[in-house]
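ok trying again, last paste got cut off:
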Amino acid sequence: MEALAGQKRLTGFAVTPDGSRLAWSEHDPGDDSTRLRVADRDLTDAWSPNGVAPRCRMHGYGGRAIWPGTGAYPWIFIQDEDQGVWALTSQGKSVPLHTVSDCRHADCDVHPPTGRLVFLQEAPGEDLTRLVLLDLQSGEVVQPFIEPVPFSASPRFSPDGRWVAWISWAANEMPWTRSRLWCLDVESGTCEALTDGQSSVIEPRWGADGSLYYLDDRAGWWQLYRLAGRSGRRVIDIAADIGRPPWQLAHGHHVAIADDITVAVQVDSGRCAAVSIHPSGVVRDMGVAEVDITQLQTGGGDIWYLGSREDTPPAICRLDMASGQVERIVCLETSPDPDSVSRPEKMVAQGAQGAVHGYLYRPHCPGVSGPEAGRPPLLLRAHGGPTAMRSPAWNPEVQFWTGHGVAVLEVNYGGSSGHGRHYRERLRGNWGITDRDDCICMADAVAAEGLCDPGQMFIAGNSAGGLTVLNALRQTGRFRGGLCRWAVTDLARLATLTHRFERGYLDFLVGDPVAHASLYAHRSPALNADEITTPVLLIQGDADRIVPVSQATAMADAMIANGGHAELHVYPGEGHGLRNAANVRSAASSELAFVLGMLRR
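nice, full thing came through this time. structure:
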């Protein structure tokens, strides 16, 4: 339980270009606080500046909130309280650089030679995003770049500071459905679209020679492209993604090292690997043990990243490019006893639209009691998003269940990332169907192989995964119970109440809310509660801006009114996910009691 709720967690980091200093943000669930830590490379002088709480909230899901600065401002960060751009001075004092009331900021990039900073500014009331260019010496905005657009991300300076590249997407798209690459001439203020907007283009960054690199999925997978002049060329051709959807900002998945070699994160069936990419297109696995990798950065000629292994929590890692060895520099969570860890087993089942992927974890925790021996009960977990993925990395939530005698099946249903564009496109217009059917298919496959007790299967999901849970319970009686956290229950209400980042996503997932009103109603569990007779436990925060608490209360009320069994736990002050340690423990205990109680019946 302590690993699940009580330990501090890394939420982001930054390293200086020479690799001598690093900074990271850590969340303490004990008091639901976030603080900044700054240290030299060997961590001998780690300290925390007073009053600094780095956290980015842009687009609802935020992202990395710390960057290396320049000159008098060695670190740049987003301050949680006002969502402004702040700096930490060389004397250790925090100062505001750019704050605007009711606006959020994110995704900074510094150009040290000119002392300029570029970042995003979101004005939720106006439903748009601006790119802002700031002179760090004068503190003045150089110029508004362009007319603001619904969404932008990843502004990056060219090596000479003359150009800024970034991506944008329309209000009815997501960056992983269709987005466009742009380039701004800082001197003239003119900008030009570099791609046609018919594919997903993400993560632009510049090479030392002035070439522009980016990830584009027009060939079916996110592949590395190089743009020199006006001609874009695909550098690699592999059946795996480089990178993954930018649900959070500034989580880089490719960086440049010497001789135009790229180090990137290759994602295959939800598993990450660090690879080097030669300009000729040769891809080499670098053999790191981490299976979930993000926030790739360079410092001192080495590669730094936030990475998790199958049996260890996330850590800030340094990959020594000379030796190929990985050093775990900062890890806030206690690593478990390797003998107590349940290891992932890759599972593939054949569904109506082809292969369905996932990972199975068998019960394994010596000395901890659980259900009686024999074929174990199964908890199938549907991830949120729904364009997210489950990697085989250490997850205390999974280990919590396996330690109590319950097998866990993590399903990357159709629509999940980490399996190419075609796999993601399976969910186009089919949310509530493909995800539901794929989860049922995987549960049946595991039961058919004798890996679980088919009469003791449960299904759980967060957010979009909660919709999957409730629709699966409508479709089949295979599951004994459902566990829903901040679940989507009414699609039409979600379309009008959710935050602006995902408001247009429903056009892709279901269709136009007006033209396809009947589909919205048919796939909304709250409007079909009479079809659910299986007991359900609902967990919800009352400050959730993504899936409002009204979704959970309406679902519970509808189930009870129709003679069903719904248990609702609402946590004051919590948003889209539980952050307070006491609430995390409470929710986990309630879910365990719910499942064990059902098993005893």
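cool. The chain has a mean pLDDT of 93. The CA atoms of residues 150 and 171 lie 6 Å apart.
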